[in-house]
Amino acid sequence: MNTESSSLLVRDIGEQGLLQILQRFCPQEIIGDDAAVIATEPGQSLVVTTDVLVDNIHFSEITTSAIDVGWRAAAANLSDLAAMGASPLGITVGLGLPGDVSVSWVEQMYVGMTQCLQQYNTPIVGGDVVRSPVITIAITAFGQAYPQQIIRRHQAQVGDAIIVTGVHGASRAGLELLLHPEKGENLSPEATKALIRAHQRPQPRLDVLPILWQILGSSQLAIAGMDSSDGLADALVQICRASNVGAVVERTQIPFPPAFAHWLTPEQALEYSLYGGEDFELVLCLPKEPADKLVQMLGQGAAAIGEITNGSTVVLHDQKQKFPDQVLSLSQGFQHFG
């Protein structure tokens, strides 16, 4: 961080002064014109996604530092690209700021974005800055994918296995610990740190894609999927709705963080996992044989949790018959304007 900017506010340096600082985070050979020019590989389609984060809706100073805000903002967009089967090319950042935001906060946010993006060799290729009554971060991410490898929600087929690439509920648990630290009294320091980090530093699962393509080889299998940023239940229902199918999900197969076993009741663990959101894992539907191989190659946390069925309902089933069947819906998860 520039020590000269540590006590300055955005209004002290104005738009042009702030842009000069932010341009340091961008490749100099790309920025400077009215738009960025990004090359794509021959035969690949351009994949574009946009996410908007708003202060006190998606983050707050109580739970998220500026550097973590930046990380989470970048990760959310990279996760959307992963959910489409695309590799990232770059992002643009639209930033709305009140004048009394410190310049150092903005710098630290860009440090966080850069730290996340550098893992995937993804540059910030442009953006815009405007005055706003509330901090707003609008990121557009650009990726590329071969048309036959694009993952879509509407491609689930009856008989497909439903795969999750990792545990669910960790981010929701981390948020709870940040808001109510006393609830973690029975957790080890290591478990507490891991859950909080899952909330503040989510990992987009771009690493899954090369493994998936290795398993599928030259086959033209259509893969259905999306990420679980809005919750596992949301992803399951959205995929089934788009594909005009149903699903049976086995509650005992949903992978939880290990700390849940002696910290939460089974009902709380299930609620966090289904409706907590912001885990940024992938939920994929594909034939059983490649699905089993994918789970095996991904290792700990990945699991086959159910099967696509005829019909239109997503049923949570308990093979141990301790709990009755439950129909999953979108109503219990987070909804804007809800």
TrEMBL record:
GO biological process: thiamine biosynthetic process; thiamine diphosphate biosynthetic process
Top-level taxon: Bacteria
Pfam families documented for this protein: AIRS, AIRS_C
UniProt keyword terms in alphabetical order: ATP-binding, Kinase, Magnesium, Metal-binding, Nucleotide-binding, Thiamine biosynthesis, Transferase
Chain residues that bind Mg(2+) 4: D34, T49, D80
GO molecular function annotation: ATP binding; magnesium ion binding; thiamine-phosphate kinase activity
Residue numbers binding ATP: Y110, G127, D128, R153, S229
Reactions catalysed: thiamine phosphate + ATP = thiamine diphosphate + ADP
EC top class, as a word: transferase
Binding site for Mg(2+) 3: D34, D80, D227
Ligand binding (substrate): H58, E278, F334
InterPro entries associated with the record: PurM-like_C_dom (IPR010918), PurM-like_C_sf (IPR036676), PurM-like_N (IPR016188), PurM-like_N_sf (IPR036921), ThiL-like (IPR006283)
Domain (PurM-like C-terminal) ranges: 157-316
Residues the entry annotates as binding Mg(2+) 5: D230
Record: residues binding Mg(2+) 1: T50, D51, D128
Binding site for Mg(2+) 2: D51, D80
PurM-like N-terminal domain segment(s): 32-144
EC number: 2.7.4.16
Pathway(s) of this molecule: Cofactor biosynthesis; thiamine diphosphate biosynthesis; thiamine diphosphate from thiamine phosphate: step 1/1
Signal peptide interval: none
Miscellaneous comment as given in the Swiss-Prot or TrEMBL entry: Reaction mechanism of ThiL seems to utilize a direct, inline transfer of the gamma-phosphate of ATP to TMP rather than a phosphorylated enzyme intermediate.
Family: Belongs to the thiamine-monophosphate kinase family.
Stated role: Catalyzes the ATP-dependent phosphorylation of thiamine-monophosphate (TMP) to form thiamine-pyrophosphate (TPP), the active form of vitamin B1.
PANTHER family: THIAMINE-MONOPHOSPHATE KINASE
Name of the protein in its database record: Thiamine-monophosphate kinase
Organism: Fischerella thermalis CCMEE 5318
